[in-house]
Amino acid sequence: MTNTAADKYEVTIGGRKGNVTLTSYDGRYKIQRHVADRIQFGEELEAAKALINSCLDRWSEGANANLRAVVDRAFRTDTKGQIKTASVLKLLRLEIDDTQWKDAMEAIKDSIQTTGTAVYVRVYERIGTTDQYRAIPLDLAAV
Fold first, then answer.
1. What is the pLDDT of residue 126?
2. How many CB atoms lie within 10 A of CB 55?
3. What does the pLDDT read at residue 43?
4. Domain positions in the chain
5. How far apart are CA 128 and CA 105, in angstroms?
6. C-alpha neighbours within 13 Å on the C-beta side of residue 92
7. Measuring CA to CA, which of 18, 41, 77, 110 is 20 to 30 A from 84?
8. Taking the complete model, does pTM exceed 0.70, yes or no?
9. Which residues fall within 8 angstroms of residue 138, CB to CB, at 6 or more apart?
10. In a 3-state reduction of DSSP, which class is residue 114?
11. Closest to 55 measured CA to CA, from 91, 104, 90
12. What are phi and psi of 101, to 5 degrees?
């Protein structure tokens, strides 16, 4: 994205990935460009799942079998047979003090592979005189 001020001062605008937010002079409109990584999981994910299952076996001995459904949900696939990335990544947020669990989380981290990027552009309009913005739906396919 070219920017007159950025060109003039020979600087790069945006974060590490190129994310940037531009606001109109009067503050009525805001445009955001967001670059997101597309990721998939490698074979290490199967090792992570085995480690997690071992943890669950130890933790749930004598407990209700429904307990396992909570973690199994993270590894459930969608209609295309793909594992839901967000569900697996949520497991990394859990702070569980167990060596085997920590090994499983390392295996998940090692399994993450960036396969490309996706660029999203969003346009917003200020709601009256508030500090809040409303998204303006764009149908770029119709243009």
1. 95
2. 19
3. 92
4. 4-37+116-142, 39-114
5. 46
6. 13
7. 18
8. no
9. 121, 122, 123
10. strand
11. 104
12. -65, -45
* Residue indicated by tokens 């770029």: 140
Q: What is the identity of the amino acid at 129?
A: T
Q: Pull the structure tokens for residue 60.
A: 């749930």
The whole-number pLDDT of residue 59 equals 84
Query: Contact, 23 vs 30, CB < 8 A?
Result: yes
User: Are the C-beta atoms of 111 and 43 separated by less than 8 Å?
Assistant: yes
**Could you tell me which residues are beta bridge partners of residue 77?**
83
Tokens of 42: 């490698």
The single residue listed with the structure tokens 């998204």 is: 135
Determine the distance from the C-alpha atom of residue 96 to the mean position of all C-alpha atoms in its chain, rounded to a whole number.
21
Do 105 and 111 touch, CB atoms closer than 8 A? no
* pLDDT at position 14: 67
Mean pLDDT by 10 residues, the chain (143 residues): 70 75 93 90 92 87 72 79 86 92 95 92 93 88 62
Distance CA 123, CA 108 (A): 35
Q: What are phi and psi of 72, to 5 degrees?
A: -55, -30
Amino acid 74 reads A
